[in-house]
């Protein structure tokens, strides 16, 4: 935000400068960055910033520009950060337990987070059968003492011992589809280097000839500092907390709402901040403030999205459909599992560019060719040029005449617009 601010209106800024924000479709991540700038540097309210981006970026009837739940969550984090002195403390956090209500069979649960200054998403832990207990009730009894060696874990209901006995007796079967709740408690501490936490779900059903069918994929990102009310408490976030979310509000595949069949009803994650009382090279929280105008803005190197390691990040390379079954995939959800050739049998992959506007330098929409390929000599192309609505009287466009058309039947203005569109695609 500070680098965008300085470029546009800093001490060395120049008139006419713009900031170019891009991602794969110029919608979700770009919209998150653009709205964050309007909120943090221009004083916009969240709803107005999101609405402005949608009206400028999306065609009517195609939904919101920023629509992924975790991205909307981060936009509101930015709003909270802006309202409380723009103070942030980056620290290590431990995922203590994961509660899942209505968990279906065959679901794998993993914990992921950022490394390498946010350039890579790493799988820190995938839960296995011995770390899971099926509960007979969906109520958490707050009067019971925490489990041994997990002083910050949420207490379990009275049926915990009986549920664990049932689990040991039937450890070879998949998760009971009718279970009210299940708890995942790691056998060793899961410590993430930053406050950002991702819980990843993948549901698989066994198929023939060494294949498995992936029927559900979903994940959710949240930040322990903001969920722990750090900005509201002068940078001192709650030392522990719980994040809850329903299945309907989870992120889908590759930035879409598509998640496949329902894998669970709702989720709760208990976490705690890791302080200097811990052993083994634990770092103290890092205080991060926004650089003032004219100050040096620290920047990191761009992520290398072509590397194999980064391709294993959450929601990258994952899709519904057939996978090969390997010892790794049998033990947990792995984004690196091989995909079958051909399209997914559960539906066509969504087009990320559907409903996204493409604008010219003055705000006009690019020419859209409804005819297949360039027009033949002597034929008129079916071209539509859409101008932005500036509240001015509508003026009918004159019919093109033969003396302004080139031998191919396209006018000079049409060629210029098509050229601009091609240049935009190449860029």
What features would you describe in this structure?
The chain is an alpha+beta fold. It contains 9 helices and 15 strands. The protein has helices at 2-9, 28-42, 46-57, 69-83, 160-169, 224-227, 308-311, 327-331, 412-426; strands at residues 87-90, 93-101, 107-115, 120-126, 132-135, 181-184, 190-192, 196-206, 211-223, 240-246, 266-273, 286-289, 321-324, 368-369, 383-384. Strands 2, 5, 6, 7, 10 and 11 form a 6-stranded antiparallel sheet that branches. A 5-stranded antiparallel sheet has the order 4-3-8-9-13. A hairpin with a 4-residue loop joins strand 3 (107-115) and strand 4. Helix 2 crosses helix 3 (46-57) and helix 2 (28-42) packs parallel to helix 4. The longest helix has 15 residues, at 28-42. It is globular, with a radius of gyration of 26 Å. The protein starts with a helix and ends with a helix. Residues 141-178, 277-281, 308-315, 328-350 and 367-427 have low confidence and may be disordered.
């Amino acid at each position: 935000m500070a680098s965008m601010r300085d470029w546009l209106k800093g001490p060395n800024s120049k008139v006419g400068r713009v900031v170019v924000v891009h991602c794969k479709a110029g919608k979700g991540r770009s919209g998150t960055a653009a709205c964050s700038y309007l909120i943090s540097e221009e004083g916009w309210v969240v709803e107005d910033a999101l609405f402005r981006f949608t009206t400028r970026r999306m065609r009517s009837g195609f939904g919101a520009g920023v629509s992924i739940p975790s991205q909307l969550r981060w936009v509101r984090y930015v709003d909270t950060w802006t309202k409380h002195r723009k103070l942030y403390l980056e620290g290590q956090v431990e995922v203590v337990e994961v509660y899942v209500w209505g968990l279906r069979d065959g679901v794998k649960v993993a914990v992921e987070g950022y490394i390498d200054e946010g350039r890579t998403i790493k799988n820190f832990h995938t839960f296995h059968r011995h770390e899971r207990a099926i509960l007979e009730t969906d109520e958490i009894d707050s009067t019971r003492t925490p489990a041994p060696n997990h002083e910050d874990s949420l207490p379990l209901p009275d049926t915990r011992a009986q549920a664990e006995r049932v689990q040991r007796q039937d450890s070879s079967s998949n998760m009971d589809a009718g279970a009210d709740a299940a708890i995942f408690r790691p056998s060793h501490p899961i410590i993430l280097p930053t406050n950002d936490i991702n819980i990843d779900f993948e549901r698989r059903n066994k198929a023939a000839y060494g294949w498995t069918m992936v029927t559900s994929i979903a994940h959710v990102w949240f930040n322990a500092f903001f969920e722990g009310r750090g900005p509201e408490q002068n940078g001192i976030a709650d030392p522990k907390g719980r994040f809850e979310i329903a299945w309907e509000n989870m992120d889908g595949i590759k930035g879409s709402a598509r998640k496949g069949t329902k894998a669970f009803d709702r989720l709760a994650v208990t976490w705690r901040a890791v302080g200097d009382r811990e052993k083994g090279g634990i770092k103290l929280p890092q205080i991060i403030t926004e650089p003032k105008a004219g100050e040096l803005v620290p920047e990191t190197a761009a992520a290398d999205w072509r590397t194999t390691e980064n391709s294993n990040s959450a929601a990258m390379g994952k899709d519904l459909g057939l996978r090969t079954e390997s010892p790794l995939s049998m033990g947990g959800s792995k984004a690196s599992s091989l995909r079958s050739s051909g399209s997914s049998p559960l539906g066509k992959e969504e087009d990320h560019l559907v409903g996204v506007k493409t604008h010219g330098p003055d705000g006009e929409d690019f020419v859209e060719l409804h005819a297949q390929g360039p027009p033949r000599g002597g034929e008129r192309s079916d071209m539509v040029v859409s101008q932005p609505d500036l509240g001015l009287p509508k003026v009918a466009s004159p019919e093109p005449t033969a003396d302004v058309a080139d031998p191919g039947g396209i006018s000079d203005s049409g060629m210029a617009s098509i050229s601009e569109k091609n240049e935009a695609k190449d860029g």
